[in-house]
Amino acid sequence: MGLTRKKITIVGAGFVGATAAHWAAIKELGDICLVDIIEGMPQGKALDLLESSPVEGFDAQIFGTNDYADTANSDVVIITAGLPRKPGMSRDDLLFKNAEIVKNVTEQVAKYSPNAYLIVVSNPLDAMVYVAYKVSGFPTNRVMGMAGVLDAARFRTFIAMELGVSVEDVTAFVLGGHGDTMVPLPRYSTVGGIPITDLLSPEKIEALVERTRNGGAEIVNLLKTGSAFFAPSASAVAMAEAIIKDKKRLMPCAAYCDKEYNVGGYFVGVPVILGGNGVERVVEIKLTPEEEAAFQKSVEAVKSLVSKLSL
Ligand code: APR
């Protein structure tokens, strides 16, 4: 008996889902199953991606389906299914519509892959992870959301651009929810270990932080017809890789926090150790009073969204 490959299911074969499949394939993380409700579309994209494998030189089974039975026994499931916001839709409309979608998806996924690790990407993120957690009944170490890796990646990109240094040497630390309530910690964001507070003026840092907070909107305004997908999908796949390879990376993820950071049982962006057991632990750091206040504001925003859902 040889070793078997890991199985990664990606739910939603749209921009984020299909691109996640691409990153996962070229990293040879395992076999990939793409699921969508649109008939033919996941099958077509999967076949197209598979046909790139001889050129790129990766080995994986890649297949698309509309049937959740085909997702059975997945090790990691990345959930990207959901509607993007359209003109005239309120944030609450998106919340309720995507909550319904994530609920249906999670029921199916949990039924066929009861031991999977779930990485939720659908927005509004922090609330959608909560839905996936409640519906799956999975333990908290196996349910998480992707937001912080993306926010940190945007911050790292802007820091590197500003200083003219390699993105590889830039680390960034962010806490809290996605978007408006994100809490970047410049004192823990570094270039080769040097805090950016030693390299950039407070005004410059604030400008980079502001651009990071609006990073999603900046892309939406340019694309006009959709939202970001390269960086979000790369971020979700980086989390899958940390789990599949048991890397024990320290990454900001939307993770379940009860006593941690005094959150009281919600999913919010915190630094975690991500490895073979999923969210192996939440890393708690001491926050300054300002950071603490900003973080609690973020938590309140998440609570308010979740309270609107009947779970
Ligand atoms: N089951 C499976 N797939 C579904 C379902 C469902 N119940 N409902 C919708 N989908 C699919 C759609 O058919 C579509 O192909 O989800 C896909 C979403 O893809 P896009 O519309 O291209 O959206 P995308 O840009 O990929 O964003 C997906 O990720 O970043 C977040 O805010 C973003 O919530 C959005 C999600």
What order do the strands of the largest sheet run in, or round the barrel if closed? 3-2-1-4-5-6
Q: What number of domains? A: 2
Q: What count of helical segments does DSSP give?
A: 10
The secondary-structure element order is EHEHHEEHEHEHEEEEEHHHEEEH
At the third CATH level, what is the topology name of the largest domain?
Answer: L-2-Hydroxyisocaproate Dehydrogenase, Chain A, domain 2
- The CATH C-level name of the largest domain is Alpha Beta
Kindly report the name of the CATH homologous superfamily of the largest domain: Lactate dehydrogenase/glycoside hydrolase, family 4, C-terminal
Helix content: 40-55%
How many angstroms does the end-to-end distance come to?
A: 44 Å
Secondary structure tally: strands: 14
CATH architecture of the largest domain: Alpha-Beta Complex
The gyration radius over C-alpha positions equals 19 Å
Shape, principal axes of CA atoms: globular
Strand residues, percent: 15-25%
